[in-house]
């Protein structure tokens, strides 16, 4: 899914249920914010994630939370991944959690995150049935429950 398609769906969902989108959101990202996070995480983030944080920031979004690149925000991706590092597999960057010990994020290959969003739970590892094309696909299916 592309950014413009997602924006249309988001705007429709926001009109249908504005309460899902009035909670805490971190500031939108700049290119500099993204580059600094990529340096700290030692990865290249996927373009769809970069587009999302540059448009929406991060935080409570529908029924989920999305980690942001805002260092002062409460959803900061670097801090969250450091806090969860004992629970997460190597070569994985979490971008969201399910509040029950599971994380959604990107697998890393040669310091580059793929576009697909995977679900990982500390009890069972990766769930091959829960793989999303990109962050927009993940948000629509999980965050908007479509």
How would you portray this structure in words?
The structure is a single chain. The strands form 2 sheets. Strands 4, 5, 6, 7 and 8 form a 5-stranded antiparallel sheet that branches. The chain has a 3-stranded antiparallel sheet with strand order 1-2-3, with helices on one face. It has 146 residues and is α+β, with helices and mostly antiparallel strands. The chain has helices spanning 3-16, 31-41, 47-55, 77-83, 135-143; strands at residues 25-26, 58-61, 64-66, 92-97, 102-109, 112-113, 117-121, 125-132. The protein has one domain (3-143): SMI1/KNR4-like, CATH 3.40.1580.10. The relative contact order is 0.17.
Number of strands: 8
CATH class: Alpha Beta
Q: SS-based structural class?
A: alpha+beta
Provide the β-strand percentage band: 25-35%
The helix content is 25-40%
| CATH T-level topology | SMI1/KNR4-like
What is the ordering of alpha helices and beta strands? HEHHEEHEEEEEH
Note the overall shape: globular
CATH superfamily: SMI1/KNR4-like
CATH architecture: 3-Layer(aba) Sandwich
Cα gyration radius (Å): 14 Å
Let me know the average pLDDT: 92
Short description:
The chain has 146 residues and is an alpha+beta fold.
């Amino acid at each position: 899914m592309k950014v413009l398609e997602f924006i249309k769906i988001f705007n429709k969902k926001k009109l249908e249920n504005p309460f899902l989108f009035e909670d805490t959101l971190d500031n939108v990202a700049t290119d500099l914010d993204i580059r600094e996070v990529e340096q700290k995480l030692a990865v290249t983030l996927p373009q769809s994630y970069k587009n999302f944080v540059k448009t929406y920031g991060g935080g409570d979004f529908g029924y989920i939370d999305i980690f942001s690149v805002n260092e002062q925000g409460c959803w900061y991706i670097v801090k969250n991944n450091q806090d969860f590092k004992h629970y997460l597999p190597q070569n994985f960057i979490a971008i969201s959690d399910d509040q029950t010990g599971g994380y959604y994020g990107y697998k890393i290959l040669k310091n580059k995150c793929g576009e697909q969003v995977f679900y990982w739970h500390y009890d069972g590892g990766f769930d091959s049935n829960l793989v999303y094309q990109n962050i927009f696909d993940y948000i629509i299916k999980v965050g908007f429950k479509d």
